[in-house]
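Look at one such:
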Amino acid sequence: MRIPFGLDRLPRDPTLRSVEVGRSPLRLNTEPVPPDVMPLATGDHAARVTAALAWLESLCGDYAPLRRQFIAAYFRFAASVIDAHRTELMAWLQRYDGLYAPEDFLWSALRPLPRGWVPVGEHLLPADMVFWDGVQPLAIELAARDTDRQRALHAANVVIMRIEPTAFDRLDALLPPSFHRFWDGERLPSSPFRRPIPPAPVTVGHQPQASE
């Protein structure tokens, strides 16, 4: 299943900007970030966070301050979850002799899809944010009152939350359990700031035989 995102209106081919989801949660580190998002200081955690924030905020659309504020609040929430479990995570990573830090697990958090479109049968319904937890999508509307989009998603039996702007600093109490302990199931910390591995070159011409 593919979830389009970063779109106010669907183009003729919505797969042009979409992400494929399946039986695993869609995390911040599931896919490499686009090459133009890579910061110059790739080993600097703060620089990577700044770059990821800027990239996700760029997908929120024009005149969308609430979406951008939610993205920033979501990263603060994920960082606070790591801080709350720092002792546990440090004990787990101790065997790697300083190769990893607890902050590296930030990229295991579920990835928000700003202006995401939830597949419902043969249709796609829009939401301010869409997450995929490995089982189902979660749509989030950022509004003080119920919206037409919220009602449409609810009528389609999509799991939908409305989060008021005044509650952005309480995401730890509002977001469901799948958003907490997001490193569970991860073998090691992994960053989305990685270069895709190019395919192996194909050799054309004479191929030596084993007897040669």
About this structure: The mean pLDDT is 89. The beta strands are 2-4, 18-20, 113-114, 117-120, 123-126, 129-132, 137-142, 159-163.
